[in-house]
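Example 3.2
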Amino acid sequence: MSDLNATAAALLGLLHDGPATGGQLVAGAEEHFGTFFSVTRSQVYRELPALADAGLVRLGKQGPRSSQQYIITAAGKKAFKAWLTSEPGPDHLRSPLILRVVNAGVLTPKQRATLFENARATYAQQLDDAKAAAKAAPDPVAKAVAEFGQAHARAALKLVDAVSPD
């Protein structure tokens, strides 16, 4: 695994905090990355064996209900640091909202209105959450990430306003 993908790198970054099970990594990703980088349960459980096969993590203690802890290895720390210092490349936006907007032509006017109404409510809530996160941020990095979340939510709201007929 010479070139880490972003999901593998995210997991290695989370494992820097200490051993964790797949479920703990999913929860940690949601807590640490918020809405700007989603990591699904299936991605975590697909990446962990590949990371172990590559020698970047090793198995730790077996937990309750057959949960398996993973621990980052020295090679994993080195690979993660190399990933952090490499050229990031382009961002890959995967927005369910934009996908729906692009395909909204197949919906009835009422269905489109509902789509935009729901999207507006979702992104308004995300904006409120990001504002609260920025206000409560314990450090400048967390504050900057929360402010990025605000900008993203505002951009999504602007998109919805631009394409909705009201």
